[in-house]
Specification:
18% strand; two-stranded antiparallel ribbon; 8-stranded mixed β-barrel; alpha/beta
């Protein structure tokens, strides 16, 4: 028995989950210790009313594992034992990438606070390291690996199915489904609805308030000049997503933009690049920066969007 589903973030704000066909939806809730997806609760409540299986995920930012775990749990308290939990471990915008001890500490803290074991999401190229953490903590795995960047609907048997064990497999970031005009991440869950419920609420215990948290050391507040430099480097996203994240972190987006302009020249936009890592694909990179793989291919003179290589420097804007 399998289930078909999608995962979404603020890039899919306003998506109508009563129309888009899916057995489940996993929604980005938080990132680091300063960002909350402004569309998370709307989407979550809509999925719940529609009878969809649902969950949330936290995108790891690095810096303070305990603080990140607390930030996630504190922001999804109302969903505990109602929706599945997941930790998204990726290279982009994650200063702890490559340090699975950080991931282990963060996941342990989530389990301690929430009383529920989250799935751990990562790319297939990092499978061995992440699987070791999952095995130690008895957590399920959610693994991403794509055959190509061609538009696709749901697939009953994705490429390289069975090459590794996982609870959920994300097999496309160029999914096309009725009810949504853009790309969607498509997933297959190797479980029944009853098994999903075990991830959500093991033992069928009633929802309880998460364990009180001991305050984590507050990270030192960065200067606006430092934040402006990070914006130029692409660490705070783009467009409205950047504005939202800066506000959540307590910074004035207008003031930060003025410093960015001053550093670059009043009318010169911030030029960004991205260095391709093993396991990357053009569609996933485009999604991170709010653009399309076609636009990135055209900007970088890439004839075949399926052929990029580690170390290649891509122009983003």
């Amino acid at each position: 028995m399998t289930l078909n589903g999608i995962d979404i973030s603020s890039y899919q704000s306003g998506i109508d989950l009563t129309v888009v066909p899916c057995d489940f939806v996993i929604i980005k809730a938080t990132q680091g210790t300063g960002y909350v997806n402004p569309d998370c609760d709307r989407a979550y409540q809509q999925a719940k009313r529609a009878g969809k299986l649902r969950g949330t995920y936290h995108y790891v930012g690095g810096g303070n594992a305990v603080a990140e775990a607390d930030y996630y749990v504190n922001n999804i308290k109302g969903y505990l034992r109602d929706g599945l939990l997941a930790i998204d471990w990726e290279a982009e915008q994650n200063s702890a990438w490559g340090n699975e001890a950080y991931l282990e500490q963060l996941v342990r803290r989530v389990i301690e606070r929430a009383g529920v074991k989250p799935l751990i999401y990562s790319m297939a190229s990092r499978y061995a390291q992440v699987a070791a953490v999952a095995k130690k903590l008895d957590c399920g795995l959610w693994i991403a690996e794509y055959a190509d960047m061609n538009p696709t609907g749901y697939q009953a048997h994705p490429w390289r199915e069975g090459a590794y064990g996982c609870a959920i497999r994300q097999y496309a970031s160029t999914g096309r489904l009725n009810g949504w005009g853009g790309n969607l991440d498509l997933n297959i869950a190797y479980m029944t609805r009853e098994q999903w419920a075990k991830y959500v609420n093991p033992g069928g215990k009633p929802a309880a308030a998460p364990a009180p948290s001991k305050p984590a050391p507050a990270p030192a507040r960065k200067s606006e000049d430092t934040i402006a430099a990070e914006v130029i480097a692409g660490k705070w996203g783009n467009g409205q997503d950047r504005v939202n994240r800066l506000k959540q972190a307590g910074y004035n987006p207008t003031s930060i933009q003025a410093k960015v302009n001053a550093k670059l020249g009043a009318s010169k936009p911030a030029a960004r690049t991205y260095t391709v890592r093993a396991g990357d694909n053009l569609s996933a990179i485009a999604a991170r920066y709010g653009t399309t793989y076609q636009a990135l291919a055209a900007k970088n003179g890439i004839a075949n969007p399926n052929l990029i290589y580690p170390g290649q420097v891509l122009k983003i804007d």
